[in-house]
User: Which sequence fits this backbone?
């Protein structure tokens, strides 16, 4: 069961990554090309579908499959870069707090507490609303907001390691503090961080979709899945598939990332990092 | 207990102060607020007038102290757009958001506690795996999309529930369910792991050796101990739900604080945005503090400390 | 098990008439956890009002035997027995509901870990009272009165105050007294005590043991005491069964066992412990090399042979059960080999 989850998650994430990388070469149409004569064409499972547009077209006649595949680019890009940014911040804070303890740790804990008190979606929306929507800004804002779990996990795992014999041995062997942090601590908490990374990546993708859905994320005409749902919203009562297709895709990709993370947790024995 | 409470209060105040500073700085991010307020097409003279009128020409520190001093007594100034006092606006909208949050929490608890117990009692069986799958599905569900799907299904197709607005309790069912989805995974997992830990403990073996009924063993002895962490996480989740209700309020056109914030953001109405961020953060801080104190009451071992 | 006396007429009916059946009778008890056999055909019996000690190193199946009697084995454990009777009642035939009606009422159990065996979330009084109301009904008030009486009986001062306290407010010794008082709430006929003093200070150990012996005498309790401490056995047991790797290797009245230990393992155990009056001050204590092995199902022969000084090739075959009166040994060595 667990192994199955890991494999399934891996396959889903693998396909999403492939789509993201290869999007321009594998899509049947230009995702930005409008065709107002062929708006809201139905997908393949419905009566009267056009084989040229497997998943139909949107309200501007753009090929839905092509937009969906390009959407994977945005989601994956946001997911990966957000995790890199938030991982750097969170891991640094967590390792420092966990390793040095005392005042440093108090400060780190305080930072985590403050961060948790800030309503993420609201602040992200406000920042994007103020500075204008762009892909870079969304990544930056999410990266600055989603480091808390990295910090919590890095802190607790570092604390456990700090007192172990081999760290003490490295101390007495005269290894410098940065040396110990980089060579002894980081490699040993990496598996825990990898699990957190998957969870945060899933969260970042969901948040980007929500921000874009509210019109304060990725700007149109970029084919973000959240934006596709927002644009399809006006037509959803008559053509439900326009929100169904991007929504299900989003759901499956996020589920896949979570499955991968859960599988990794069991595989690496990373304990409870939820 | 008193020392613990006082210390906790001091930290909470410090966090509140930090969040206050951050929410002030947030609206100054763009550099010149006056340009944003004036909007596109304003002349430099208009901007200068606005700058003076809103006191934006003064030093940042002076602006902050002024704002913070009045915010501390609940005065968040006037809304640029709604032409009303910000505190009045928030007070009017808060009941909707609180109702939504509490509905969501109630639904989440009503679902996750039985699911968690069930999974723990049948640990490692197919029931357990199914429950964990449900938690994982809930975690991956885009809430705004789920909201739309529910609207299409129960609002339009079946006609059971109203699609948007705040007229009656029925208006809160779908948004409440959607909001609950965000808290169900964490609460279910926590109940499950807490119950598994409790069921494997020595005092449960004692309870069985005493010949107590299964109901008493599960419901009284195990659940009471498993509930302690669930209570504090439930409070935290309520805080997250109130903060995240902006998405759901927008989808269902529920005119709560989140909807107000969304409107204000799109209208560049910064005093409101600032105030909503601060108020929601303060509610979160208060909730976590309440959870810690409640934990002290629930866990006799903490009471003495 | 043999109840025959020396010189009894040889032609006895197979089921001799008895006034009452033994309180607890176990024959060929087997408990397996997956690929590990924890108890492998253990047999012994316990008469009413008797204190029967089960001794052995940790991991030899003593606790599992006790849990198997109470029906408290963890999920995944398999229990089989040729006979498992409590006061003539077949425990194997009882449903979980019937068994739970028996537990806490006619048979009670106390555990090794007094620190964790009480529920931290409820007061001592509440935990004691619920046993009584569960099995005997009546008001909570009446149950609390009985709880207070019993707390006083087990030597706890100010019982009224203790009833309102939480477990974490009590010391380990007090908690074990509470556990004992709680076990006595319904006047059980059988008390199973699984290493009740192991987690306690030496002085407290002595107090708890004295208490158990006293209660046994005053209330006519049958006590099945599980321990690895032969010092305890010498002080309070009427009869001793020595367990090794899931089997009862030797069983005898206490005096007989200490006078003439017949199984090499028993002798090894005795050599490890300074039994008052048995070991001279200047004599070095012995030790048994090695550890209790994990026994897979289907194992044959004597499980002790790898650690035994007297092991011979035939120890890998079937081991004879030898009996001399009430003294039983599971070993190929002839009776009196050590003399």
Assistant:
């Amino acid at each position: 069961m667990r192994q199955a989850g890991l494999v399934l998650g891996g396959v889903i994430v693998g396909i999403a990554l492939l789509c993201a990388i290869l999007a321009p070469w594998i899509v049947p149409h230009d995702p930005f090309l409008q065709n107002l004569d062929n708006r809201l064409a139905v997908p393949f499972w419905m009566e009267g579908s056009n084989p040229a547009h497997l998943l139909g077209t949107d309200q501007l006649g753009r090929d839905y499959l092509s937009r969906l595949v390009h959407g994977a680019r945005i989601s994956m890009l946001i997911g990966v870069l957000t995790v890199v940014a938030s991982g750097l911040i969170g891991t640094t804070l967590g390792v420092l707090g966990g390793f040095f303890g005392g005042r440093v740790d108090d400060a780190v804990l305080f930072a985590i507490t403050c961060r948790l008190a800030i309503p993420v979606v609201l602040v992200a929306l406000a920042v994007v609303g103020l500075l204008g929507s762009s892909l870079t800004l969304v990544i930056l804002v999410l990266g600055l907001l989603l480091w808390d779990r990295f910090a919590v996990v890095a802190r607790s795992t570092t604390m456990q390691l700090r007192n172990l014999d081999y760290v003490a041995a490295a101390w007495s062997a005269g290894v410098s503090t940065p040396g110990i942090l980089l060579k002894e601590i980081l490699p040993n908490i990496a598996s825990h961080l990898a699990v957190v990374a998957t969870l945060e990546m899933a969260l970042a993708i969901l948040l980007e979709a929500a921000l874009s859905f509210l019109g304060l994320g990725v700007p149109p005409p970029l084919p973000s899945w959240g934006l596709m749902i927002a644009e399809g919203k006006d037509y959803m009562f008559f053509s439900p598939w326009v929100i169904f297709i991007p929504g299900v895709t989003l759901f499956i990709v996020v589920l896949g990332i979570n499955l991968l993370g859960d599988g990794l947790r069991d595989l690496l024995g990373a304990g409870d990092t939820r | 207990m008193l020392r613990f409470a006082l210390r906790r209060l001091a930290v909470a105040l410090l966090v509140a102060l930090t969040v206050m500073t951050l929410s002030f700085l947030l609206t100054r991010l763009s550099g010149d607020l006056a340009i944003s307020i004036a909007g596109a097409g304003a002349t430099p003279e208009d901007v200068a007038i606005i700058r003076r009128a809103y006191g934006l020409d003064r030093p940042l520190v002076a602006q902050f102290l002024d704002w913070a001093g009045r915010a501390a007594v609940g005065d968040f100034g006037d809304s640029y757009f709604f032409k009303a006092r910000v505190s009045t606006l928030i007070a009017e909208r808060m009941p909707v958001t609180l109702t939504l949050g509490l509905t969501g929490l109630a639904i989440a608890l009503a679902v996750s506690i039985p699911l968690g117990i069930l999974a723990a009692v049948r640990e490692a069986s197919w029931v357990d795996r199914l429950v964990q799958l449900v938690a994982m599905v809930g975690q991956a569900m885009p809430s705004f999309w789920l909201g739309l799907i529910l609207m299409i299904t129960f609002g339009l197709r079946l006609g059971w529930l109203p699609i948007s607005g705040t007229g009656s309790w029925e208006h809160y069912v779908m948004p409440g369910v959607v909001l609950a989805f965000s808290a169900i995974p964490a609460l279910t997992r926590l109940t499950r792991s807490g119950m598994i830990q409790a069921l494997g403990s020595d005092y449960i073996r004692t309870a069985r050796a005493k010949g107590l009924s299964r109901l008493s063993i599960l419901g009284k002895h195990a659940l009471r101990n498993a509930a302690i962490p669930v209570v504090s996480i439930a409070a935290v989740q309520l805080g997250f739900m109130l903060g995240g209700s902006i998405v759901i309020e927008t989808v269902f056109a529920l005119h709560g604080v989140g909807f107000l914030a969304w409107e204000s953001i799109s209208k560049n109405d910064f005093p409101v945005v600032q105030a909503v961020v601060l108020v929601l953060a303060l509610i979160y801080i208060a909730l976590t503090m309440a959870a810690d104190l409640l934990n002290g009451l629930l866990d006799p071992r903490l009471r003495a400390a | 098990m043999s109840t025959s006396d020396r010189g009894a007429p040889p032609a006895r009916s197979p089921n001799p008439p008895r006034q009452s059946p033994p309180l607890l009778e176990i024959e060929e008890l087997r408990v397996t956890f997956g690929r590990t056999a924890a108890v492998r055909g253990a047999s012994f019996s316990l008469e009413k009002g008797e204190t029967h000690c089960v001794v052995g190193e940790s991991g030899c199946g003593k606790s599992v035997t006790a849990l198997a009697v109470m029906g408290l084995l963890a999920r995944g454990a398999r229990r089989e027995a040729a006979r498992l009777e409590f006061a003539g009642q077949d425990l194997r035939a009882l449903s979980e509901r019937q068994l739970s009606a028996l537990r806490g009422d006619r048979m009670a159990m106390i555990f090794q870990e007094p620190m964790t065996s009480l529920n931290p979330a409820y007061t001592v009084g509440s935990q004691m009272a619920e046993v009584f109301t569960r099995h005997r009904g009546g008001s909570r008030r009446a149950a609390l009165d009985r709880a207070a009486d019993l707390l006083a009986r087990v030597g706890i001062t100010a019982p009224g105050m203790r009833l309102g306290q939480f477990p974490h407010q009590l010391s380990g010794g007090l908690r074990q007294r509470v556990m004992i008082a709680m076990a006595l709430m319904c006047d059980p006929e059988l008390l199973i005590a699984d290493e009740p003093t192991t987690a306690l200070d030496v002085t407290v150990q002595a107090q708890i043991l004295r208490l158990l012996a006293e209660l046994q005498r005053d209330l006519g309790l049958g006590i099945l005491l599980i321990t690895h401490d032969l010092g305890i056995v010498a002080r309070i047991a009427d009869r001793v069964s020595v367990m090794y790797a899931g089997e009862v290797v030797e069983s005898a009245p206490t005096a007989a066992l200490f006078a003439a230990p017949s199984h090499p393992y028993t002798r090894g155990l005795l050599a490890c412990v300074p039994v008052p009056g048995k070991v001279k001050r200047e004599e070095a204590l012995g030790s048994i090399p090695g550890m209790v092995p994990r026994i897979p199902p289907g194992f044959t022969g004597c499980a002790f042979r790898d650690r035994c000084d007297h092991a011979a090739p035939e120890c890998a075959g079937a081991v004879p059960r030898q009996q001399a009166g009430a003294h039983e040994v599971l070993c190929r060595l002839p009776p009196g080999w050590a003399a």
